[in-house]
Design a protein that fits this description.
Blueprint lengths: L1 H6 L1 H16 L7 H21 L11 H28 L1 H6 L6 H28 L10 H23 L5 H14 L7 H10 L3 H9 L2 H13 L10 H30 L2 H4 L1
Helix pairs in contact: 2-6, 3-4, 4-6, 4-7, 4-8, 4-11, 6-7, 7-11, 7-12, 11-12
Length: 275
């Protein structure tokens, strides 16, 4: 797969450019829409869970808005990339039928174009960090690693969704429902230590384990750690426990990628006939 994509790297790059231009075509605000939607969601959540229903943070100096943004931006990257990857083969039906090329290029280009939007949105997040906290920490050097881990996770799911959607169009409605529930099962609004404390009090540690096995949980915590944590004095989660579940997220991502390649290869032989 990767050798074929490398040989077709110019095509891949052109598809990424096309997707980026298509998103901003005929729009007045252009790039603003890459950050406008996450900022709007952050504002609503900030009003609800900071001003009305207060969620306490261990770090009293950490603005709740930054806590939210560090979760909302990666989540928007995940959800938008998965949706566009799912549609990527069907919306390129003419190319699939006529051109001889590695069909993986379509979901990969959809994911990479969203990665570009995500990186641009992170630049805006840095402005907020400097405005509220005025400095970054050495942990910021791990940010590319976290982004790569999340992108790898999205890639596996994107390959599966893009292949299955060609044959099962109900998948779009299913994904919409799954993403809604998945959002609340991921510590985007609440800090993970709060969920851990509540579940331990209820003697439901197994629920905490299930929440942590959601790959987006350690990934979101990692984003907050590298972007906001000045030290380990008030961690959102024990660092050794976090490291364990990061490794689990990597293993799950690898399995999803391998399954995704097999599923995509199996179904791609019939794409042209189905489309």
């Amino acid at each position: 797969m990767w050798c074929e994509l490398y040989r077709k790297r110019e095509l891949l790059l052109n598809l990424v450019k096309r997707d980026i231009k298509a998103r901003y075509k005929a729009t007045v605000l252009g790039f603003f829409w890459s950050v406008g939607k996450p900022l709007f969601i952050m504002l609503i959540l900030w009003i609800l869970f900071s001003q009305i229903v207060r969620i306490p943070l261990r770090d009293k100096h950490l603005p709740f808005a930054l806590h939210l943004l560090c979760g909302v931006l990666p989540w928007m990257y995940l959800s938008t990339a998965l949706i566009e990857a799912m549609y990527s083969v069907t919306i390129n039906a003419e190319l699939v039928k006529k051109a001889r090329l590695p069909l993986e290029v379509f979901p990969v280009s959809a994911i990479l174009s969203n990665l570009v939007h995500f990186v641009l949105a992170l630049l805006v997040l840095f402005v907020f960090i400097f405005a509220f906290r005025s400095r970054l920490t050495p942990w910021i050097l791990l940010l590319p690693v976290v982004i790569i881990l999340q992108t790898f996770f999205i890639l596996g799911m994107g390959l599966i969704l893009s292949a299955l959607f060609v044959f099962y169009r109900d998948l779009a409605s299913i994904l919409e429902v799954v993403l809604t529930g998945w959002f609340y099962l991921t510590p985007i609004i609440y800090p993970m230590y709060l969920a851990q404390e509540k579940l331990v009090e209820m003697h439901k540690e197994w629920v905490f384990t299930l929440l942590m096995l959601n790959p987006m949980t350690p990934i979101i915590i990692l984003y907050r750690w590298v972007l906001l944590a000045a030290d380990f004095s008030q961690p959102e989660l024990n660092k050794y426990l976090l490291l364990f579940y990061v490794c689990m997220a990597l293993i799950i991502s690898l399995l999803l990628y391998l399954i995704g390649r097999l599923v995509f290869r199996h179904y791609s032989r019939r794409f042209a006939d189905e489309l």
